[in-house]
Design goal:
Layout: E1 5-8, E2 29-37, E3 41-50, E4 57-60, H1 62-68, E5 72-73, E6 76-83, E7 93-96, E8 102-105, E9 112-116, E10 138-143, E11 155-164, E12 170-174, E13 190-193, E14 199-207, E15 210-218, H2 219-229, H3 231-237, H4 271-285, E16 290-300, E17 307-316, E18 319-324, H5 349-359, E19 364-373, E20 376-385, E21 392-399, E22 404-411, E23 413-419, E24 425-434, E25 440-452, E26 459-471, E27 474-487, E28 490-491, E29 493-494
Parallel strand pairs: 1-19
Antiparallel strand pairs: 2-3, 3-4, 4-9, 5-6, 6-9, 7-8, 10-11, 10-13, 11-12, 12-15, 13-14, 14-15, 16-17, 16-27, 17-18, 19-20, 20-23, 21-22, 23-24, 24-25, 25-26, 25-29, 26-27, 27-28
Length: 498
């Protein structure tokens, strides 16, 4: 066990537009409405707000998403929904919804994210604060409550923080605006610190016993939710949340294994390296039968994603097939290249890296000094291999329109494996230079988390994958995350990191 230890603070990497424009909440907060046709025409109302800088993701309350069930927002179709709670959620209770309709969910996680097909033009996100509120702290509440004749306009209420309710909501005394009070339709609005103009909560409603008190879901709960469903975005919106960016740099410089001279017996590896190899192989074996959705985004440099897509990956006895999600019906052996002039698609590193570390004995592995990353102590292992070792490779895919060709070449490589104190793998990286006249560097980082299934021990599965190439002054990247896991058709859930 190395005696030294490094304290490592993973800085949030620069992302496109992470510094939102000044707080113009009329361009951030958005009315949500949906007409329901049945025996009569019924209107459902709520409020949402731009979560990301470009306003492709709209945050609101779970009860708004569950009751209104909007199909569009400001004309843009909703293509996916992420819910932070639900009737089967641990701690869920029956709560009175709009029109006194009871609905079961956990109040402190009354959140949903609605993904739009395209970002809303002329709208933008705002900044957040996870600082603890102080009694008497002044706030502003922005929402679209329903008014007479179903007319709606953005209202701004002034308020003051009172404290936290027993159900984990934030409570605020607020003053009416020209006689207008917080009414149905306001749910999903934002509570903003009056000084910093940062969002501190998501409006849930009013206290039924005291209508002059508004209650809101804490921004901390939103940060926890976004971290699970949009991990790349979370590290830019909530840099103080303590999450390591999924594509953070390695801790140590490249590991270059010392050369061996002549024919030598393979040296006995330390017990910790043997344990790492065993755990890596168990990780690879544990991912041989599952179904998941892989969501990908492609871009270059510091620009926003130029394209997004999602694919269902099905693995049966280690054999992998892909199809477009959610409506694809054609099986593919690999994820297709996006129709961009420059692009990369991460291969199967999330499954191949553990197998390489587990089986490739020509790969030199050593334990580096431990590190503390965002307050968590991690064990760090470095690995390296030369071209002659034959441990690492890269596959070129050329699309000739009528057909595709591919070629795999061997390369030298290096990277890091991070584990927790119990030697559970939480991150793996790989880096190498592609052969050829141009100096192109390929990087890939995979993060792992725990999955639980009834009657089974938790297993480790991939959570995110981030790949990029560096070619002179050009950087092309692809970022992906894994969701909607199934094992032999059974739904499973991801365990929150402790």
């Amino acid at each position: 066990m190395p005696a030294q230890e490094m304290v490592y603070h993973a800085n949030a990497l620069v992302r496109p537009g992470i510094n939102p424009p000044p707080a113009d909440f009329d361009q951030t907060v958005i009315p949500i409405s949906e007409l329901k046709l049945g025996l009569g025409i019924e209107s459902k109302f709520g409020t949402g707000f731009c979560l990301d800088p470009g306003c492709r993701l709209i945050a609101t309350n779970y009860h708004v998403a569950a009751i209104a069930k909007p199909s569009k927002i400001d004309g843009q179709p909703i293509v996916d929904r992420f819910l932070a709670t639900g009737p089967d959620d641990e701690g869920a209770t029956m709560n009175v919804g709009p029109a006194a309709a009871p609905i079961k969910y956990t109040l402190s996680r009354d959140l949903a994210i609605l993904e739009l097909r395209k970002p809303l033009a002329h709208h933008h996100g705002a900044a957040f604060s996870l600082d603890e509120l102080q009694p008497g702290q002044q706030v502003e509440i922005y929402a679209y409550p329903k008014e007479a004749n179903h007319s709606r306009k953005l209202l701004r209420f002034e308020g003051m923080y009172k404290g936290e309710t027993t159900s984990g909501l934030l409570a605020f005394d607020y003053a009416p605006v020209n006689g207008d009070t917080i009414q149905p339709g306001a749910s999903g609005g934002v509570v903003v610190d009056a000084q910093s103009h940062r969002i501190v909560g998501v409006l849930n409603g009013i206290d039924l016993d005291n209508p002059s008190t508004a209650v809101a879901v804490p921004a901390q709960s939103l940060a926890d939710f976004v971290t699970k469903v949009e991990p790349f975005l979370a590290t830019t919106l909530f840099p103080s949340h303590g999450n390591t960016p999924p594509d953070a740099d390695d801790i140590y410089p490249e590991y270059i294994a010392p050369p061996t001279e002549g024919l030598q017996h393979r040296a006995t590896e330390p017990a910790s390296v043997k344990q790492l190899r065993e755990n890596a192989q168990q990780l690879a074996d544990g991912m041989r039968n599952l179904v998941a959705v892989q969501r990908l985004a492609w871009g270059s440099g510091d620009k926003d994603a130029a394209m997004r897509a999602a694919y269902e990956v099905r693995i049966v006895d280690g054999s992998q097939k892909f199809r477009e999600y959610p409506d694809g019906n054609k099986d593919m052996d690999e994820i297709p290249l996006p129709p961009l002039s420059h692009s990369i698609v991460p291969a199967l590193e999330w499954s191949e890296l553990p197998e390489m570390v587990g089986k490739q004995l020509h790969l030199k592995v050593r334990q580096a000094p431990d590190a503390v990353v965002n307050g968590k102590k991690l064990k760090i292992f470095q690995y390296g291999a030369s071209v002659e070792d034959g441990a690492c490779g890269f596959t070129y895919v050329n699309d000739h329109i009528l057909f595709k060709s591919s070629k795999t070449v061997r390369t030298g490589c290096y990277g890091e494996v991070w584990t927790d104190e119990d030697m559970n793998i939480v991150r793996m990286s790989e880096h190498y230079e592609l052969p050829g006249d141009r100096k192109v560097i390929y990087h890939v980082v995979v993060t792992y988390g725990l999955l639980t299934h009834a009657g089974e021990a938790p297993r480790t599965i991939p959570m995110t994958i981030a790949a990029k190439t560096e070619d002179k002054n050009r950087v092309d990247w692809c970022r992906g995350q894994f969701t909607d896991y199934q094992i032999f058709g059974s739904q499973v859930k991801i365990l929150a990191a402790k």
